[in-house]
Design a protein that fits this description.
- It is a single chain.
- With about 525 residues, the chain is an alpha/beta fold.
- It has helices spanning about 55-75, 115-125, 130-135, 145-155, 160-165, 170-180, 195, 210-215, 255-260, 320-330, 340-345, 385-410, 430-440, 450-465, 470-475, 490-505; strands at about 10-20, 20-30, 35-40, 55, 80-90, 95, 105-110, 165-170, 190, 225-230, 230-235, 245-255, 270-275, 280-285, 295-300, 310-315, 355, 375, 420, 445, 480-485.
- The strands form 6 sheets. It has a 7-stranded mixed sheet with strand order 15-16-14-13-19-20-21.
- It catalyses: glycerol + ATP = sn-glycerol 3-phosphate + ADP + H(+).
- It comes from Actinomyces lilanjuaniae.
- This is Glycerol kinase.
Length: about 525
């Protein structure tokens, strides 16, 4: 006798990871193990120096494609899927017409620096910290609000359509959710607290939109999505999609999702994700902590009607994307993974230091005027040394963020004793050992390194009872590899001192009369 599809036991949670360079769908089982993966890259659009865009329609089509691909690979249908989680590149902003579903402009990506003039204008005489007490963030090109302001100011007719109530705005989770749940036919317009906390438009203490800041940026509040907890039901799959009536019940920005997947549920626990950029978060509990050392105050996660949990974050703009630059712009390597082998052909960096300030410097400096620099060059330096300098730059940047984090955390009596790591670059053994050497504490990689997608899956599964709560996440987490510091103190400090010197060479590069 055939089983009624409605009674099939739910065996999996599907995670959609809409990242900076690709969209992926990953199917997880109850043990948190990967069952199947499908992935598709999207075009990186660079109209001008400092401008970075994506095609929102291409991304939505890719999401549909990878969902179909992962279900096909696993030979699974929607009846076996308990829920769907979404995680996303944060701060990247899209504005679209709610009646047609068409974006009015490309996605403006988090790395994009075009909004500097808007940020300067908003800062006025008060300075970049004008809104920091309310939203936990300083004015910077990184965040979503000024990107939306740019679209409304520069796309013909956009402001009029927005004021007429025809346009919606969102980060990429909101765009995917709206389309997944019906689009123009009743799509849900919502986001979660973690993504909302990266817009510069949400009050960090009360978790609601700040109408005064929206007014300052010229953003009609009718465009804004509803803010919901990270773990809870947002909506259900559209009738003409592959996931009909499947609950979408977890949304977290990618770095918060990785923190969740790494089971950093205790105050003082931290993780660092090595992806396009590098992002370190430390759990600060249910009270937002204002940084005195160049870090961001952000929402870490919120489960249902429980209090929100906060984090301090150190954001590094360029990490894995520097390896891609070495591959695509210079052609020094054919594949990203080749950088480790090339770096291993030399014993050290040969005196070369690479500061990848392609989008200015993020934490802890927040210097939009900085630009990338390769310094310390002599005739001795070869491509192996440059590859090594590329590798080391990620570790040096991470150490700077960690030291800022420890200074902030010292006020609450917590110090980091180990660093949990995840993301694609953690496969690089040379980098991970150098990272342990530089931070002076063990670096620990979990067995499942896809913690971003896993965190979104956990949030989605907890909301529908597939997992009972955070203890299941803790129980599923397992150590995969550990690197202990091995470098002598004198060498460690010499290298870092030279790195700091290299950073000073990148500053004050962009003048008012320099048009990029």
């Amino acid at each position: 006798m055939s089983e009624n599809p409605g009674t099939v036991e739910k065996q999996y949670v599907l995670s959609i990871d809409q990242g900076t360079t690709s969209s992926r769908a990953i199917l997880f089982d109850h043990a948190g193990a990967i069952v199947a993966v499908d992935q598709k890259e999207h075009e990186q659009i660079f109209p001008r120096a400092g401008w970075v865009e994506h095609d929102a329609v291409e991304i939505w089509n890719n999401v549909r494609s990878v969902v179909a691909g992962v279900l096909s690979k696993a030979e699974v249908n929607r009846h076996q899927i308990a829920s769907v989680g979404i995680t996303n590149q944060r701060e990247s902003a899209v504005v679209w017409d709610k009646n047609t579903g068409e974006p009015v402009y490309n996605v403006i990506v988090w790395q994009d620096t075009r909004t500097q003039a808007i940020c300067d204008r908003l800062a006025g005489d008060v300075g970049p910290d004008r809104y920091k007490d309310q939203v936990g963030l300083g004015l910077a090109t990184y965040f979503s609000g000024p990107k939306v302001a740019w679209i409304l100011e520069n796309v013909e007719g956009a402001r009029q359509r927005a004021e007429a109530g025809d346009l919606l705005l969102g980060t990429m989770d909101t765009w995917v959710l709206w389309n997944m749940t019906g689009g123009v036919n009743g799509g849900v317009h919502a986001t979660d607290v973690t993504n909302a906390s990266r817009t510069m438009l949400m009050n960090i203490d009360t978790l609601d939109w700040n109408e005064d800041i929206c007014a300052d940026m010229g953003i009609p509040t009718s465009m804004l999505p509803e803010i919901k907890p990270s773990s809870g039901i947002f909506g259900y799959g559209r009738k003409n999609g592959l996931l009909v009536d499947t609950p979408v019940s977890g949304i977290l920005g990618d770095q918060q999702a990785a923190t969740f997947g790494q089971a950093c549920f205790e105050v003082g626990q931290a993780k660092n994700t090595y992806g396009t950029g590098c992002f370190m978060l430390i759990n600060t509990g249910t009270t937002p902590v204002r940084s005195e050392n160049g870090l961001l105050t952000t929402v870490c996660y919120q489960i249902g009607d429980q209090p929100a949990v906060y984090a301090l974050e150190g954001s590094i703009a360029v990490a894995g994307s520097l390896v891609q630059w070495l591959r695509d712009n210079l052609g020094i390597i054919k594949d990203s993974k080749d950088v480790e082998e090339l770096a291993k052909t030399v014993e050290d960096n040969g005196g070369a230091y690479f500061v990848p300030a392609f989008s200015g410097l993020f934490a802890p400096y927040w210097r939009p005027d900085a630009r990338g620099a390769l310094v310390g060059l002599t005739r001795y330096v070869n491509k192996g040394h440059i590859a090594r300098a590329v590798e080391e730059s990620t570790a040096f940047q991470t150490r700077e963020v960690l030291e800022a984090m420890n200074r902030d955390a010292a006020a609450s009596g917590t110090t980091l004793t180990e660093l949990k790591v995840d993301g694609g670059m953690t496969r690089d053994e040379l980098l991970m050992q150098f990272q342990a050497d530089q931070v002076g504490v063990p670096v620990v990689r979990p067995q499942v390194t896809e913690t971003t997608a896993l965190g979104a899956a956990y949030a989605a599964g907890i909301a529908v009872g597939f997992w009972s709560g955070t203890q299941d996440v803790i129980d599923n987490w397992a150590e995969g590899r550990r690197w202990e510091p091995a470098m002598k103190e004198g060498e460690r400090e010499r290298l870092f001192r030279n790195w700091k010197k290299a950073v000073t060479r990148t500053l004050d590069w962009v003048d008012e009369d320099v048009v990029e």
